[in-house]
Amino acid sequence: MKLFNNAVSVLVILIIGLLIIPLPPTLLDFMFVVNLMLSFVILLTTMYIHESLQFSIFPSLLLMTTLFRLALNVSSTRNILFNNGYAGKVIETFGEFVIQGNIVVGLVIFLIIVLVQFIVITKGSERVAEVSARFTLDAMPGKQMAIDADLSSGLIDEDQARERRSKIQREADFFGAMDGASKFVKGDAIISLIVTFINLIGGVIMGFINNVGTFGEIMQVYSIATVGDGLMSQIPALLISVATGMIVTRSASESNLNDDVSKQLFSQPNVLIIAALALAALCFIGFPVPQVLIVSGTMLILGIIMLRRKAAAPQAVVETGPAADEEITNEAAFYKNIDNVYNLLNVEQIEMEFGYSLLPLVNEDSGGNFLDRVVMFRKQFATEMGMVIPSVWLKDSGQLNPNQYAIKFKGEMVASGDVLVDHYLALAPSDIEDTVDGIETVEPAFGIPAKWISEDKKIKAELAGYTLIDPTSVIITHLSEVIKAHAYELLNRQEVNNMLQNLKKVNETIVNDTIPAIFPVSELQKVLCNLLREGVPIRDLETILETLADYAPSVKDADMLTEYVRQALRRTISHRFAEAGQLKVITLDANIENMIMASVKKVDNGSYLALDPKTIQSIIGSATKELNKIKDLVQYPIILTSPIVRIYFKKLVDQFYPNTVVLSFNEVETDIQIQALGNIEI
User: Fold this and answer.
1) Residues 504, 475 contacting (CB under 8 angstroms)
2) Strands, E, within 581-665: which ranges?
3) Quick check: helix, strand or coil at residue 292?
């Protein structure tokens, strides 16, 4: 058994040994027959597989068979030069059969076979392998996204998703290997021409040295040996080259090549009949009548037989519910089946609709890469925020303008925008004069004034310092900002459970001890949503659970628990909002903090702020004044408060400035330098 397991390794060593060890003509004949048989087996195998991965060892096998042929070439050349042109019965038989007494014709036939192998089959196979490798790699992101979509929708489980991902990776590895392995066949064809030249010229020289006979006799002997040796090398090489072309052009199918050809090539009887009539018409221009009529008559009869068989086949009937033999003819008939009505109740979490002019951006067949960009954003968002966004469902809409798109959450539109496919969105720098003509618009994600400029003005705009954004990037940026702002709406209990299952792989104890023994999943969802609502990443779920396990037994208010979690995540919060180790903030006056704390009312389900309208107006007026002072100095306006006041002031300011970041002193790391740019006071 151990010897069998190492048989391939031993075989490769023996093949390399053949390059050095002389073989007698009888053993060389046997090796040539084995080589020919092996080539037939490989070719037929490629015709009976359903997809390329079923023969994944082909690249390695291609190298082994090429090395085997080269070893036989060396051995046959040694015999030809040492044995006065005799290298075995196989080579002699092949040479005499092809030459048939005429050296020139024999060499021409051999040269044609080599050129067909080298220029047509090998070159084509090499190109197909190269293109297949590139296309397979380019298609990987889209296939990965489709797997993620099926996994998120529950169509497949984790094991099936893992198997599909593995298959995609193996396909990329296989076609990449085939791209390189096809070079072996090309090199084999080139070396065959060189060996043929050596055999013929070297043989003639050895013939004169050994006094084999006259020049004509020497040419006859060594030309037979040369052509025979070349054919015994090139015919197996031709079979392997055809097999290479077969396997790189073989797409995934439910049947082998024989079944596919019979089903697809001869599936249209009308094609056979028309082709037969067109062929028969060639008789009128002088084609030989018997041969043409035999071929066209056969095709005509075959087409008529298939046409009758197709007409006699039973027609498929569509089921519509109670009446299985009733064909669907209108919309009302379709919705007689109540299951089809229930399908209308399903609501997608994220959905995008596009006007018809924008369809080329999302259609991969038209060269659009929108799906790949969505996949990369999902990866980026998961890395930054610790949450996997659900699949984005894309569809066209006749209700939108041709250049319009809409973003929907749970069936309701939350944002929309307009994009010109053949233009660029140009953002002008603030320090230069607007010199480029275009269509005035507003950047949809951030509301910045911009212009749509045509392709011919692109270079001029770049030289003028404009920032140019392609249409796909405009939509992706808008989608990403909308998702970031509404991420808390997308975090449902199913996704929380998925996150907990993922955490169990590295820390099963904290999950089992906390959920649901101390804290139910529903309350955990509220805390996580509170964090996402204010842009705090939830990637460190382990720290979140440990904090909740410490405080949940005594604190029942989800908002207060969120504050404790925020303090535990202070390093994450500090790094997210600080720039170069510095936090530029507006502070809150102590008198305002005291007024807020005096106005907090406790109830059974939590607490709320009960300030009079005049005080609220004064606080917001002061906050507005300070925020306007720093809006051009910082990217995120940040207000710093004491820990006990933060949550109430955040709720107050959110009514007027929803994007304002409110932090407490306990949420800032000690190594972060705080720079106060203003103070809110009344």
Assistant:
1) no
2) 582-588, 600-603, 606-609, 638-641, 661-664
3) helix
503: exposed, middle or buried (Cβ count in 10 Å: 0-12, 13-18, 19+): middle
Q: Which position has the token pair 């709406």?
A: 489
Nearest to 74 by CA among 178, 241, 166, 192: 192
Say whether the peptide bond before residue 516 is cis (omega within 30 degrees of 0): yes
Helix (H) or strand (E) holding 6: none
Cβ partners under 8 Å of residue 154, min gap 6: none
Structure tokens at 415: 């944002």
Q: Closest by alpha carbon to 480, among 415, 418, 413?
A: 415
579: helix, coil or strand?
strand
Q: Where do the H-state alpha helices sit in 100-157?
A: 103-115, 123-153
Phi and psi at residue 75, to the nearest 5°: -65, -45
How far apart CA 113 and CA 98 sit, in angstroms, is 11
Amino acid occupying residue 338: I
Half-sphere exposure of residue 49, counting CA atoms within 13 Å on the CB side? 22
Measured distance CA(648)–CA(666) in Å, rounded: 16
Q: Is 312 helix (H, G, I), strand (E, B) or coil?
A: helix
Residue 588 phi, psi (nearest 5)? -110, 130
Say what the pTM is: 0.52
Mean pLDDT of 348-377: 84
> Mean of the per-residue pLDDT values for the chain?
79
188-223 as b/e, with b when 16 or more CB fall inside 10 Å? bbebbbebbeebbebbbebbeeeebeeeeebbbbbb
* Residue 315 DSSP one-character state: P
Q: Between these two residues, 210 and 273, which has the higher pLDDT value?
A: 273
Burial of residue 464 (number of CB atoms within 10 Å: 0-12, 13-18, 19+): middle
Under the phi-then-psi rule, with left for phi > 0, alpha for psi from -120 to 50, and beta for the rest, what region is 321? left
- Range with the poorest average pLDDT among 101-110, 139-148, 196-205, 487-496: 139-148
Both tokens of residue 504?
A: 């169990």
Cβ 407 vs Cβ 416: under 8 Å: yes
Which run of H or of E encompasses 354?
A: strand 350-354
Q: How far is CA 480 from CA 370, 496, 530, in A?
A: 13, 21, 19
Q: Are 479 and 407 in contact (CB under 8 A)?
A: yes
- The total of other beta-carbon atoms located within 10 Å of residue 433's CB is 6
The residue written with tokens 């004491």 in the block is 642
CA distance 369 to 352: 15
Helix (H, G, I), strand (E, B) or coil at 599: coil
Torsion angle defined by CA atoms of residues 284, 286, 292 and 297, in that order, rounded to the nearest 10 degrees: 10
Mean pLDDT of 384-404: 87
Beta carbons of 392 and 475 less than 8 angstroms apart: no
Closest CA to 195 of 240, 228, 160, 164: 228
Nearest to 386 by CA among 508, 511, 551, 569: 569
Phi-psi region of 101 (alpha: psi -120 to 50; beta: other; left: phi over 0): left
Position 319 pLDDT exceeds 50 = no
The type of residue at 507 is N
Q: Which amino acid is at 104?
A: V
Name the β-bridge partners of 353: 395, 406
* Strands lying side by side in the sheet with 412-418: 392-396, 350-354, 404-409, 412-418
**Is 440 strand, coil or helix?**
strand
Q: Are 549 and 513 in contact (CB under 8 A)?
A: yes
What string of H, E and C letters represents the secondary structure of 392-423? Answer: EEEEECCCCCCCEEEEEECCEEEEEEECCCCE
